[in-house]
Amino acid sequence: MSWIKTISYADADPSLKRVYDKVKGPDNTIDNVLSIHSLRPHSLTGHMSLYKNVLHNSNNTLPKWYLEAIGVYVSYLNECNYCVQHHFAGFKRLLNDD
Predict the structure, then answer these.
(1) Rounded Cα distance, 72 and 56, in Å
(2) Could you tell me the residue ranges of all domains in the chain?
(3) pTM of the model
(4) What would the pLDDT profile of 28-62 be if each residue is shown by its tens digit?
(5) Are 32 and 9 contacting, i.e. CB atoms less than 8 angstroms apart?
(6) Residues 71, 51: contact at Cβ < 8 Å?
(7) Mind listing the pLDDT tens digit for each residue in 59-84?
(8) How many contiguous H segments (helices) and E segments (strands) does the chain have?
(9) Pseudo-torsion of CA 5, 16, 86, 57, nearest 10°?
C-alpha cells in the first residue's frame, strides 16, 4: 500500500471516476500504481498515455509477452516486488501458462 493519500473508486468524484473507469479492473479495483495519481488525475491520464504508447503501440515489433518479460526483469532489478508480480501476471496470461 502506498503512503501517498489515495482516493478509492467508491469515494471518487465524477471527474476522477471517469478516469478510473478507463483503468479499473474487476469489482472496480484500481492498481496501487495507478491510484497514487488520484489527487492529480491528469497525471494518471499522462501515465496511461505513456504506458499505452510504449507497450501497446501497433508499431511494436516485439511480442507483448516479451515486453512483459522485460517488465518482470526490470522490476526485479529495481527491487519492486509489486511490479514483478504485476508484470508476471500479464506474462503468464499472455502465454496462457502458469
Answers:
(1) 16
(2) 14-55, 64-95
(3) 0.69
(4) 889 888 999 999 999 999 999 998 888 888 898 99
(5) no
(6) no
(7) 989 998 999 999 999 999 999 998 89
(8) 5, 0
(9) -140
